[in-house]
Amino acid sequence: MPFVIDVYLSAGRAEAVAGLALALTGRKRRGFPGKRQHEELEVLGRFSVPLRTVTWDKGDGACTALLVDPQGLLGGSIRFDLPPTIPGAELREELGEEDFIALCRQLTRDAAGYAAEIFEISGLVAEPAQVMPLLESGEAEGQQAELDQVVEAAQVLEQLRRKVGEYESAAAAWTELKQRFLAFRDRQVEKIKAAAEEDRLAGSKSLEELQQQVKAAIASRSQEIEEEREKAKQDYQKQKELLQSEIDRFRQQYQDTGEEYWRDKLKNEEQGLADLEKKLTATLEHLHKEESKFLESQQERIKQFIAAGEKRQAAFEQRLKLINGAVTELEDSVNKRVERLKEQYKKAAAFTVSLPPEQGDGEYAMVFFAARYKSGRWAVFPPQRFGQRGVRGALSGLLGRANLPFRPAAKAGEAMASRLQAMLPGLPLEKKLVEHNLLLNPGFISDARAGLAELIDQGEINKKYASLFNAFDPGALKDP
């Protein structure tokens, strides 16, 4: 591709217009206030820097590839969502339930912890889809930078594949850990359920035995109380008969004599009989309460036994709930982490560009223009996109600089231009550019003038810039 894209103009003329115009507008004004003049442009050159593609993935009739800068001027910075950390938890079979649950909770927190990881790869070109349209395939025309090739495309591919492989390994490791913990949980659950069932069966058997004991104790105690009740009744009957005999005798004496003495004796015996009846009633009521209390105490034994069994079963259920809950939380956390780990492939794939298979492993060139001014300063210009510059262009016009419809086509080009501009002084490339100075090439100047006139006729450039190149004199350009 030429130095300028998105313009309906021959490549040579578009390059000549953009290269010369950028060089002229890149001049600085020097001198005292009121007498400032643009510094003179001494050298203008065109050169290329090689870039390489390396196949990332192949499909039917297409492939994706990485774009690599062998000079190492560019470096890709991939921001992964999380590091490919592999869990190192040791799960011993003899681990107790509480320790297992604590380990699950710790791993749950570890799995849920996301901290971005920045991965730097020297030579990896970001946003390759923007850069590819700027590149020339095959043998590059004109001067080549011939910088040291410090980055191998295959090494960049290997580094990125290795990094993606780390995320795949981490996803597999977390998945394997999850499976180990699920299997351990299942074994623990079976043990708890078996213990709960054993306790339930033992409790049922013990309950039957206790119920038989309680039944026997109640029967025995009821028999004892019944015997005490019969004895109390018999004692009452004997004493009643004696008292009744006395009452009959005293009544007869009183009837025969009418003396108060017998009357008092009669009343005393009658009161004794009434007290005897009260005593019997109290004794029977006491025995009834004692019998009821004993029955309640025996029934309470059964209730307490059943409650203790239910409490033990509830404890088993709580153990199951805790261990299942801890592992479920771990499983959810690990599943989310594994999903995120697998998604990191997309982070690497974002640095690829879709190409025909035959272009997946090729060499390309990015074209730059370089201008040297009389002060000895070099300026390097990246590939340009044709189009109005918007606010920035309007501001340039207000400041007295030419508002031309050229702007950098990609951030990668700007970054490379900045690095090249700093490196250029002293490089062999500097001598080549001076030797092949385009300002001394009549064909280049002719193309620049013709291209400028054509763009003005098309209404793409304001006609006030028609004289932009008129002051050009091979070897020394004055202010336009």
> Which oligomeric state applies?
single chain
Strand percentage, roughly? 15-25%
pLDDT below 50 for ≥5 consecutive residues: which ranges?
Answer: 389-400, 474-480
Main sheet record? 7 strands, mixed
Task: Determine the fraction of residues in helical runs and give it as a percent range.
Answer: 55-70%
Note the overall shape: rod-shaped
Estimated structural class:
alpha+beta
- Measured distance between first and last alpha carbons: 30 Å
Roughly how many Å is the radius of gyration? Answer: 53 Å
Please report the total strand number as a whole number: 14
Question: Key features?
Answer:
single chain; 480 residues; alpha+beta; three-stranded mixed β-sheet; rod-shaped; disordered C terminus
Description:
With 480 residues, this protein is of the alpha+beta class. Among the domains are: 1-39 and 377-411 and 434-480, no CATH class; 196-336. Helix content is 57%, strand content 15%. Strands 4, 5, 8, 9, 10, 11 and 12 form a seven-stranded mixed β-sheet that branches. The chain has a three-stranded mixed β-sheet with strand order 1-13-14. The chain starts with a strand and ends in a 23-residue tail after the last helix.
In short:
It is built from nine helices and 14 strands. It has 480 residues and is of the alpha+beta class.
Write the layout of secondary structure elements.
Blueprint: E1 4-5, H1 11-25, E2 29-30, E3 37-38, E4 41-59, E5 62-68, E6 75-80, H2 97-112, E7 117-122, H3 128-131, E8 135-137, E9 143-144, H4 153-257, H5 260-349, E10 352-355, E11 363-373, E12 378-381, E13 384-386, H6 390-398, E14 406-408, H7 411-423, H8 428-435, H9 442-457
Parallel strand pairs: 1-13, 4-9
Antiparallel strand pairs: 2-3, 4-5, 4-11, 5-10, 6-7, 8-11, 11-12, 13-14
